[in-house]
Amino acid sequence: MGLDDPFPIEKCSGRVRGAILAEFHGRCPTIREVASISDAQWLTVPNIGPTTLEELRNIVLHPPNGHDPQPQAGMQDNELLSRLNRLQREFNLVAAEIRSRLNPEAIRRRTRKPLD
């Protein structure tokens, strides 16, 4: 089983299965698609908490056939670039969130009430 194979949704509890299907608009995603979503993003999905996230990550990290999605020496360049791009996107999201929390003007804009 490779990263582009369907995620083994049948191995999930009903709660995780429902959350995955909701997140992917009713379709079963690939292992790669599930793995590409950060823990922070998963925790914003309804019915995904720390326990269900752990269940999800266990399936991603240890698929039924034992495929390990961690980088390996034999990984193709396009797979490495894809992983790098995903990590850079995730890093940029975290950095932007930190910047917005440290920027007092952004805080004022978020808390300012509209004039009626």
User: In DSSP terms, counting alpha (H) and pi (I) runs of 4 or more, how many helices?
Assistant: 6
Q: Would you tell me the structural class of the helices and strands?
A: mainly alpha
How many structural domains? 2
Nearest-integer average pLDDT: 78
Q: What is the element layout, followed by pairings?
A:
Elements: H1 14-23, H2 31-35, H3 39-42, H4 50-61, H5 77-102, H6 104-111
How would you describe this structure to a colleague?
The protein is mostly helical and 116 residues long. The chain folds into 2 domains: 1-70; 73-116. The protein has 6 helices and no strands. The mean pLDDT is 78.
Key features of this structure:
116 residues, mainly alpha, 2 domains, globular
Structure at a glance:
The chain is built from six helices and no strands.
